[in-house]
Write a structure and sequence with these properties.
- About 25% of the residues lie in helices and about 35% in strands.
- It is of the alpha+beta class.
- A hairpin with a 5-residue loop joins strand 17 and strand 18.
- The protein has 14 helices and 42 strands.
- Helix 1 packs across helix 3, helix 7 runs antiparallel to helix 8 and helix 10 runs antiparallel to helix 11.
């Protein structure tokens, strides 16, 4: 019975068989259409592997039969993993004609041992073995030595380890196997493994002797031959790397790790070659495999997990078909301490600001400065920059170091990145800014303190202004413009006067400029509201007034005040409400005075008020007249004229309203019985009654109409109509009686 299957990838083969539902390899070799339950579907194993064929004949399993069974299985819809399984079977047959029989025997041996009652004829028959051979197979399984779990693992992995070139490990596995008596293939492999191990020992012994004689180049050749004989021999690997001097392999520390750069010579490395990259600790024979890859993009491989703060070196072993093909490329030692990148320095007023990008894993950053004073000074720095203040003018040089903490807790500092910046003289900032109304209406006076070194400019700053004392990175030529206000008078030191136009809203910012550098000072928000034009007021009802005006530009709200009968009233109005609803005010019938003025913006510091818009509305006065027709008690017509004035509600002594003159006009008809049309004006007829404003104000006036008409020489029929004349007539309402009452026939 075989002690080892002697096929590569044994664990993967068994996993694929179980996934396909096969107990062993012979289950996969049944003829097309057969199953384990088919009568007579037994295979023979003792004298070669034979499976049932057509007509009940046994067929020897060779590569041709295997191909037929595979093609039939795939045509029947077998899953794709079955193809890979048959490829493994074919590889076993290609290596040895009895290779697949050996696999089945090894599987049957362990399957029979794993049955509850041990190897038996019934168990062998149940596994598909021909009944004529079942007894012999069961007997052989019972007599075979039972390996330990370690020996079984060694038997199943020996081929994989050997083919990987790991001679030392393969030699260790052969020591765990029992003596391969009767297993010639296994015995031959064990002999080869032992022979190669002895050859490796001889090469190492000679390499050590050469290294002791300082024949490093010859020692390196022997170490390389020993390593190619046993690729898992650490002594050979360390000796080879120890005797190979640094070559053209360059190790560059970057923020993303250590980048290995291959030589640009097209002959090295060869096109398409892969490399086994090793990382070693400086000064020690400690190497760890990083990766196996082909250099890309000009021959670069990045080690992104190099230990920070440690000194390391690298070796790249060329591979050919997965085996070591020659001497390695070895780099010089490097300190894995990446530097900061993208360093930018800017100078300010007596200071230098620095910003950079910090590598991952940095514990902290330290900075040393040397300037006009040659002594080095530590500059406090954060992880991404620093601000160095209180510097005199001149050039200041810095070296920025990254500090890393190793796995042992030791702090290691990077070599450092140099940077320098010149601190220039800067202007003095404006410390105080005062804006006030001048003695002349509409004039602003601006006073400031500070800014002795440099030119002070008052700028119209758009948007949020800079903080006072802030250095402006914008070149002086690109600063905002000065406000377009007409100056008043000659400028004086620390003072200026302007006449801002109505409607201006400006954030006045004082900036001191010296050459190409500027410093911001205080800011003041100045609002010059536009006056309210075209203000008019009229009564729409006796106790309701409507105000109209043109809304001032750059104003969102106005304040409306009015005074009436000694009382003051006010109302705030928004632009949207005015445009949507207009402005109507509830008032009394007394005379009223109105004023409308714009409100400044909420955050204005200084407001220059415009001239207020005012208008007045006289008291609501109505004059009415009525005609009394002849009746039972009197045969004469009378006219009664009455003035309706509001009751004084203000303080004592309030002036009484002035009334216009009342004129009653009669217009005679041209036909004896035809009533004429009413008079259109005072001259369109004959005045029959005149009353002065004083008479109307004194109280109701009654007059004999017939006498007045007769004295005027007007004959019947005629039509009457009253008119108000004089300068106060537009402010007084005239209430007329019905038209029929004014016709006299």
């Amino acid at each position: 019975m075989p002690l080892s299957p002697l096929v590569p990838g044994w664990a993967e083969l068994r996993t694929a068989e179980r996934a396909a539902g096969f107990r062993h390899a012979a289950d996969a070799l049944l003829p097309p259409g057969s199953t384990r339950a088919t009568p007579g579907a037994y295979f023979q194993i003792l004298d070669g592997l034979r499976v049932p064929g057509r007509g009940g004949r046994r067929r020897h399993v060779d590569r041709a039969l295997l191909a037929e069974v595979r093609d039939a299985a795939l045509r029947a819809g077998a899953p794709e993993p079955v193809r890979a399984l048959f490829a493994r079977y074919d590889a076993a047959l290609a290596e040895h004609p009895m290779g697949l029989r050996r696999v089945v025997l090894y599987q049957l041996l362990h399957l029979l041992r794993d049955t509850p009652r041990g190897p038996s004829v019934e168990a062998a028959t149940a596994l598909g073995v021909d009944p004529a051979e079942a007894a012999a197979l069961a007997h052989a399984a019972r007599r075979a030595a039972r390996p330990t779990p370690a020996a079984r693992t060694a038997a199943e992995t020996l081929v994989d380890v050997w083919r990987a070139g790991h001679t030392r490990r393969a030699h260790a596995l052969t020591r765990q196997l029992p003596a391969p008596a009767g297993d010639q293939r296994l015995a031959h492999l064990v002999t080869r493994v032992a022979s190669r191990a002895r050859r490796t020992d001889a090469l190492l012994q000679e390499a050590h002797a050469l290294e002791r004689r300082v024949a490093t180049d010859a020692a390196a050749d022997h170490y390389l031959r020993a390593l190619r004989t046993a690729e898992d021999d650490t002594d050979a690997l360390h000796g080879l790397l120890r005797t190979c001097r640094p070559t053209v392999l360059r190790a560059e520390v970057r923020q993303d790790g250590v980048r290995l750069r291959w030589p640009t010579d097209p002959q090295q490395p060869p096109e398409g070659r892969t490399w086994r990259l090793l990382r070693g600790a400086a000064g020690r024979d400690e190497w760890a495999e990083v990766t196996t890859a082909a250099p890309t993009g000009g021959g670069d491989i990045v080690d992104g997990v190099a230990p920070l703060g440690e000194r390391v070196r690298y070796a790249a072993l060329p591979l050919d078909g997965g085996r070591i093909a020659g001497r390695p490329l070895v780099s010089a030692e490097v300190l894995v301490a990446p530097e900061v990148s993208d360093v930018t320095l800017t100078d300010g007023r007596a200071r230098v600001d620095a910003r950079w990008r910090t590598p991952p894993g940095t514990h902290r950053v330290t900075v040393l400065r040397t300037g006009p004073d040659p002594a080095a000074t530590d500059v406090p720095a954060g992880p991404h920059g620093f601000t160095d203040q209180g510097l005199p003018p001149g050039e200041h040089r810095y070296r920025i170091h990254c500090v890393y903490r190793t796995a042992a807790g030791r702090e290691v500092r990077s070599p450092g990145v140099p940077a320098h910046r010149t601190v220039h003289p800067w202007p003095d900032p404006v410390t105080g800014l005062t804006v006030r109304q001048g003695d002349t209406p509409g004039v602003l006076t601006v006073d400031w303190t500070g800014g002795a070194r440099g030119q002070v400019r008052l700028l119209d700053w758009p948007g949020p202004p800079p903080a006072p004392g802030e250095d402006l990175r914008t070149p002086a030529a690109d600063l905002p413009p000065e406000p377009a206000w007409p100056p008043c008078g000659a400028p004086r030191a620390g003072s200026a006067a302007y006449r801002p136009p109505a409607g201006a809203t400006t954030r006045l910012t004082a900036v001191t400029v010296l050459g190409d550098r500027a410093v911001a000072g205080p800011s003041v928000r100045v609002d010059v509201p536009e006056g309210v034009p075209e203000l008019t007021a009229r009564r729409v009802e006796p106790t309701r007034a409507r105000l109209t005006f043109d809304w001032p530009r750059a104003t969102d709200r106005v304040l409306v005040r009015w005074w009436q009968s000694g009382a003051t009233h006010e109302r705030r109005l928004t632009r949207s409400a005015y445009l949507r609803e207009g402005l109507h005010l509830a008032i009394t019938r007394a005379a009223a005075r109105f004023r409308v003025e714009p409100l400044a913006v909420a955050d204005a510091d200084v407001v220059v008020p415009p001239a207020a818009a005012e208008t007045a509305l006289p008291a609501d006065v109505a004059i009415s007249y009525a005609l009394d027709r002849p009746g039972f008690l009197t045969a004469r017509r009378r006219v009664t004229v009455r003035a309706d004035t509001p009751e004084p509600a203000g303080p004592v002594g309030e002036a009484a309203p002035e009334l216009p003159e009342f004129v009653l006009v009669a217009r005679a008809g041209s036909a004896p019985r035809q009533a004429p049309a009413p008079p259109r004006t005072v001259r369109d007829g004959t005045p029959v009654l005149r009353l002065s404003g004083a008479e109307l104000l004194a109280g109701p006036v009654r007059r004999d109409l017939d006498t007045a008409v007769a004295d005027a020489g007007v004959r019947r029929p005629y039509t009457l109509r009253a008119f108000l004349t004089g300068p106060h007539a537009p402010a007084v309402r005239l209430e007329e009686p019905p038209h029929n009452d004014l016709v006299v026939r």
